[in-house]
Amino acid sequence: MWRSIVMVWMLVIASAGACAEELVVWSSSAQEWVSLDRLIAQLAPTRYILVGEVHDNELHHQRQLALLERLQLRGRRVLALEIFDRDDQGWLASKPSLEEIGERVSARGWDWGLYRALVNSALDWGWPLQAANLSRSDAMRVARGEVALPAEVAARLGDAGRQALLQDLVDSHCGHLNHATASSVLRAQQARDAAMAAVLQEAWQRWQLPVVLIAGNAHVRRDYGVPVYLDAASVVTVAMTEQSSAERTGEQGREVWDFIWPATQQQREDPCAAFASRSAAPNERATTAAR
Q1: pTM of the model
Q2: Are the C-beta atoms of 291 and 56 separated by less than 8 Å?
């Protein structure tokens, strides 16, 4: 009898180990699929961990939480989030309730239900919260040219990164974006990314803790996102992407992210349908493009 029980436990332990070693994340540097354990081993000692998402994908947020839970076992960190504007930092310091946080986030168009568990877990663990995003009004002023990008910020984005960003902006607007408007949207995107990078650096200096940023996949790209404005050696990026199972071995080789954790494409209404009948106003585009 005892022999049977031991055998059962051995099978359970072996099964758990197999799950932990399942190869689910693409490593751009190694050009191979790796386990979550290996991913965490590379993330744990990193100063800035940038984790992407498709904002409305529930599985992406579940996986983000799984990463945070594993990182928590390696030590305390700061959690920076795109859903909070930099102007929210003083308010967050006053320790609002989860309900109050949810009201503020929802009022800006974010689905609070997808972020609640991330914020709640960070608070339970004693992680400081860091508001990371540039406000919509500030982004609009940059897009309109009312506020110029600092020369050092504008210069950080190379030609290749600029062209990649412009193309992604045009594609994300289904081709309904003229050159002048695309340039204004690009300035707003640059301003957001530079602002997020500055926030991460400030968080590190204030708390002397590693910082995890939760933001859209575009923001965590190495060629034109937040990493452009940070010391490259201090950053590791993880993209949460969407693709069909047939594409699992196709696009993963793109080295704009360090690691890619793909999920099945989520069903949505055609985002290009609205552009077929009308074009969004330039200022509206400028405030939404970074998402």
Answers
A1: 0.86
A2: no
